[in-house]
């Protein structure tokens, strides 16, 4: 994989209020375990907030329950620490009632993919203009190490002492299949990458889902080392860049082609294949996004990192506004008293 730290360009918006990352830091102590991936995620969110050009009072963070769900306490903006799995339901209602707000959700693989799974798929289906940051550590951490819907088969946990039997959800594929218009994946050990993905999510109109590999040092340490460590990730991941071929490897000497509809790795060093033969990433191609997402658990190909899909579709709150305006045009302004009285009423 090319050097992401050198390749990524972030388009900053000037902030008329002169805000800095410090303006988004709460005075509360951050109470995550030392080495938790959450620290990096929090820091990068605070760093990009001033670049968005959005007043602090127009930003809201919503969370459910879990280690990730402490997030609103650590941001010096408005926030809700809601109930387990219901963050997306609450955030959806907030966005529909206040479409002028920038609404963010901090959630985990248990909170979002298990008890919150139903709310997740329907928020994606409706395309509510929300930014979902899902901390994926493939374990229930706050409740002390039970397996989650993203834990790997064979993984030994407190609730699977002989190994997990379930196959995990593929979050990117689940989001795409549910209708999400922006789907991306990053990891905690690359700050600049996270800044780029968070800014892209913020700029997207509609649901934006970012899965983040976040290391849990206590209950699942090293779960993503094969894809995030500097000495390994060049050979095990491929960076998705719109309009660019899928090239990876320590020496950029490997690529990914389509054999029918099946991705396959080829060498670029023996002269048989060149960059012209490779898959060229297109963020606007939903079919390609599914193919790339399905590479996630295939050990024969590199794991995709970056933006899978970014397409335009009217957001849910826009359609709500259109419907209301259409009703006003057809029937005039509503009369709440008349509605409450109905056709038949009497006074006492």
Describe this structure in words.
By secondary structure, the protein is α/β, with parallel strands linked by helices. The chain has a single domain, classed as Rossmann fold, CATH 3.40.50. The protein is built from 13 helices and 11 strands. It has an 8-stranded mixed beta sheet, sandwiched between helices. It has a 3-stranded antiparallel beta sheet with strand order 8-9-10. A hairpin with a 5-residue loop joins strand 8 (247-248) and strand 9. Helix 7 (171-177) packs antiparallel against helix 11. The longest helix is centred in the last third of the chain and has 16 residues, at 316-331. The protein is globular, with a radius of gyration of 22 Å.
Task: Spell out the key features of this protein.
348 residues, alpha/beta, Rossmann fold, eight-stranded mixed β-sheet, three-stranded antiparallel β-sheet, 13 helices, globular
The number of distinct β-strands equals: 11
Record the strand order, biggest sheet.
2-1-3-4-6-5-11-7
CATH class: Alpha Beta
* Domains (count): 1
* Number of separate helices: 13
CATH superfamily: Thiamin diphosphate (ThDP)-binding fold, Pyr/PP domains
Largest sheet: 8 strands, mixed
Unreliable segments of 5+ consecutive residues: none
Quickly describe the structure.
By secondary structure, the chain is of the alpha/beta class. The protein has helices at 4-7, 38-48, 71-74, 87-97, 109-113, 117-126, 171-177, 191-203, 225-228, 233-236, 286-293, 316-331, 336-341; strands at 59-63, 78-81, 102-108, 131-136, 182-187, 208-213, 237-240, 247-248, 254-259, 262-267, 303-310.
């Amino acid at each position: 994989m090319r050097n992401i730290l050198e390749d990524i360009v972030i388009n900053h918006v000037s902030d008329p209020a002169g805000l800095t990352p410090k303006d988004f830091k709460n005075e509360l102590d951050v109470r995550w375990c030392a080495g938790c991936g959450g620290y990096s995620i929090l820091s990068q969110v605070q760093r990009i907030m001033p670049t968005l050009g959005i007043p602090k009072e127009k930003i809201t963070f919503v969370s459910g329950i879990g280690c990730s769900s402490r997030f609103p306490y650590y941001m010096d903006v408005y926030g809700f620490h809601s109930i387990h799995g219901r963050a997306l339901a609450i955030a959806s209602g907030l966005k529909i009632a206040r479409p002028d707000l920038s609404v963010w959700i901090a959630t985990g693989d248990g909170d979002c993919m298990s008890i919150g799974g139903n709310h997740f798929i329907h928020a994606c289906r409706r395309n509510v203009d929300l930014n979902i940051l899902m901390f994926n550590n493939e374990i229930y951490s706050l409740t002390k190490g039970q397996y989650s819907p993203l834990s790997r088969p064979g993984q030994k946990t407190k609730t699977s002492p002989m190994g997990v039997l379930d196959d995990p959800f593929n979050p990117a594929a689940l989001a795409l299949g549910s209708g999400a218009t922006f789907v991306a994946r990053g990891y905690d050990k690359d700050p600049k990458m996270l800044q780029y993905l968070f800014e892209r999510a913020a700029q997207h109109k509609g649901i934006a889902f970012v899965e983040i590999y976040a290391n849990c040092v206590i209950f699942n340490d090293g779960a993503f080392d094969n894809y995030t460590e500097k000495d390994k990730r060049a050979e095990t991941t491929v960076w998705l860049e719109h309009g660019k071929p899928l090239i990876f490897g320590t020496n950029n000497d490997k690529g990914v082609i389509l054999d029918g509809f099946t991705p396959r790795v080829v060498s670029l060093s023996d002269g048989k294949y060149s960059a012209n033969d490779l898959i060229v990433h297109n963020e606007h191609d939903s079919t390609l996004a599914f193919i790339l997402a399905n590479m996630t658990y295939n050990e024969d190909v590199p794991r995709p990192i970056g933006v899978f899909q970014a397409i335009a579709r009217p957001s849910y709150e826009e359609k709500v506004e259109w419907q209301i305006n259409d009703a006003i045009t057809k029937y005039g302004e509503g009369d709440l008293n008349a509605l409450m009285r109905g056709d038949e009423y009497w006074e006492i």
